[in-house]
Amino acid sequence: ARDLEYAVVDVETTGLRPEGGARVCEIAVVRMRGDGTVLREFTTLVDPRIKVTGQEFHGIAQGDVVGAPRAAELVAELCALFSGAVVVGHNLDFENAFLTSEFVPAGLPDGLPGLCTLRTLRSQVHLERYSLARASHALGGDWPTGQHTALGDARACAQLLAELLHNAPGPLFYVGPEPVVLEERPQQAQLKPRRSAAGSVRLAGPRPRAVPVRELRAWPRVWRELELDPGLCTGRFDEAERAYAVARARTRARVRTALRIGAAAAGMTAAALLAAALCQPKAARSSS
Question: What is the pTM of this model?
């Protein structure tokens, strides 16, 4: 997994469900290597073409998106950022729903390889809470900066992924479709990054950084004894759901152990039969 490149994406939206009319009002992507080296950062406000709601969460006002590109104008940028990479998000289902509803109809390929850090963390480590901010604090000791901005959250997710791969007690393997090289397209959009009180955001340029996102911090000993099935690490992941996932992992481990013992016993039996056959007199063997 450390040999791959990743495109960590985050969106800020006017609501929670695209099927309910919510739209993207900000997007960011951090392109990185598995060792944490940032290759490129991208962020812009997006004109949702509807009233901007949810300011109490993302802080984006209606006036902020005036002059911002529309989603369809960003497809070329996203294709370049996603090309040859695994798309990553913390609760990737959320990001994917908005990518599918707004960017796929404008030409972004559907079904790109993806990795959800929320599911991965739930399957690999034991924490009380798994939100991006709480997981970052519990594992690295610091609260992420720029929370509920697309770039701030994408950076925090990239940091978590790099530290996950760095701290794992054994090799972690990406299991999924191979990254896809996407066709280059002419850039169309005039970007409009969010501005803070101190001025415009600072981005990592097109050249790789010489250092990781930040220093990769050592995590506490929170690794699960048994890896959980990521498919069971969705939803609220409450106490009952966690207990069920753990029970399934234990059952899987018992089955694997039984299969290994059975295979070993079968192998020993076959070896014993072969040895017995070889020890028979030649005449007896040839008459069989």
Answer: 0.84
